[in-house]
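Incident log, structure service

09:12 report received: a user says their structure output differs between two submissions of the same chain.
09:20 pulled the input from the user's history:
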Amino acid sequence: MTRVKIYGAGSIGNHLAHGCREHDWAVTMCDTDPAALERTRTSIYPERYGAWDDAIRLCAPSEAARDAADVVIIGTPPDTHVPLALQVLDDAPPRLLLIEKPLCAPDLDGCARLVTRAAETGTRVLVGYNHRVTEHTRIAAEWAREASTGAPTTLRARFREHWGGIFGAHPWLSGPADTYLGYTSRGGGALGEHSHAINLWQYFAGLAGLGRITEVGAMLDEVDLGDGVVYDRVAQLSVRTESGIIGTIVQDVVTQPAEKWLRLEGERGNLTWQANAEPGVDLARLVVHGEQPVEHRVQKTRPDDFRGEIVHLAALLEDPAQPSPLSLTHGLETMAVIVAALESARGGRRVPVNYEPAARAG
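09:34 re-ran on a clean worker, output below:
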């Protein structure tokens, strides 16, 4: 039986625990806060999925640190990801180590060491940008690979979502000051929390042959609540790729209703990717000029947003040689753009992207 350890008993930990149990995997959930474990058992998990699953083991991290596992999932705040990942690799290296997005805080502390330790232990490290492995992404990705819309002219992405939904899923938090979300420096704010937009932009740019982002010009709307609580509520990025194509990426924590959208424009048409195009529906849409548009509407529930991720983990356990769109390299490349965006916004200038840690990971 596949053995899974999950660090962090918050919202994401519960989603992924449920997905793992659907595969009948043995799940241990760890958290340093006994109240978090109790919330998981008595409210979060049973309220979402109908009943508590007694097969899930709940414990403090110290109780399970050296227990062997095939998969370890880290769903703690971003600024704890890399230190915890390094500890996991020292204590009991798993076959797969999935780190929730964003990979880390924008100081990148420990990333080079993580790359080295992963190589030394043979553990495959992934970063949980789950939208890369959903069904409508698979469909849109095929269109991008096939150049269905002709030579690309631009690419745009936006993840604009008021973070009230996040706090609704974590009712024990009173606001951004109570969590990493209120600290851009800890991996929160719009740049970190909604970095799916940057990551998906990079994914489709790669599929379309645009190359990596080489230059970023960014503006941030930063909020200072005092006592060090500083976060970006709106992040707007203009980017240029290795092939010379320019595009835009927008992320915010203020928009209601949410917009999770990407469009690749080409000389013969466009393709659109959209999450929650309407309640319970993800959308992939292809327009070729002069032809009837093609739409794939994928019915989904909230747990479906994570099922593709678990299916992907199962596939990697079965065939470790296959490539992964969730690779550590891709997660590091997204962090490199976040770092450049912060430097650009605060320096008032365009900034080149430094991919040195990502290059070492590759």
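09:41 both user submissions now match this output. Likely a transient worker issue. Closing.
09:42 reviewer note: Residues 99 and 159 are 20 Å apart (CA to CA). The first strand starts at residue 3 and ends at 7.
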